[in-house]
Amino acid sequence: MLDAPVRRALEPTLDAAAAGLARLGFRATTLTVAGWVVGVAACVLVATSHWHLALVAWLLNRVLDGLDGPLARRTGSTDLGGFLDIVADFSIYGGFVVAAAFAEPDARVALIVLLGTYYLSGTAFLALSSVLERRGEASRADRDQLADGRSLLFVGGIAEGTETVVVYALICLMPQHLAVIAWLFAAAVAITALQRIALGIHLLRGAEHPPSTTSSSPTEEHR
Question: Angle at CA 38, nearest 5°, toward 93 and 48?
């Protein structure tokens, strides 16, 4: 829900930083890998209840993730880079939840439900993105809006990347309320999954056309 305005607000700063990194010879894939390593460190810190250090690592992970896109647009984006970026994001998003379950056993049910909503929302997102790309049926305006400069068509909702950054930061700052936060965010992710499913039905319903016949009977021709 907040991704688009936040991206617009941060774009000038990220572009300036990406320009500096490009001059130093950095590649986007390097940032993606570095961000993933920092994200894994954040997950380990969460699992061992080092919450403040985990917060620092989590925010650094998000900064690196925010920079690899602008850097890729300057140095040359690739399908491999886009693939690695989405795999890195999903693995850290899920890894953080698993790590939190190790740290706070009393919140495990809420965290399992949150993982389940991630699975549903992520499946709807990736499946719809793939189908739209394959069909090529999205209009140019729709494609520009959904892609937003990224490698895949992104289908929004009330729980997107920005909300995840905020929620995970809150977990690090208030681990004693982890279960409540997880339940609330699971509800938001579930609504997002339903939004994506509804959008998929809307975009794809009626897209299948019956096969055309190569011949018809004289009666049919004069109807």
Answer: 75
- H/E stretch holding 223 reads none
3-state secondary structure of 160: coil
Helices of type H across the chain: 3-23, 28-47, 51-75, 79-103, 108-135, 140-147, 161-173, 178-204, 218-221
CA angle, 27 as apex, 21 and 28 as ends, to 5°? 95
Quick one: average pLDDT of 175-180? 96
Q: What does pTM read for this prediction?
A: 0.81
Task: Supply φ then ψ for residue 112, to 5 degrees.
Answer: -65, -45
Considering the four listed CATH numbers 2.60.120.200, 1.20.120.1760, 1.10.10.10, 3.40.50.800, the one that applies to the domain covering 3-200 is 1.20.120.1760
Domain-wise residue ranges, the chain: 3-200
pLDDT digits (tens, 9 = 90+) for 102-156: 999 999 999 999 999 999 998 988 888 878 777 765 544 444 444 455 455 556 6
pLDDT tens-place string over residues 62-88? 999 999 889 988 888 788 888 999 999
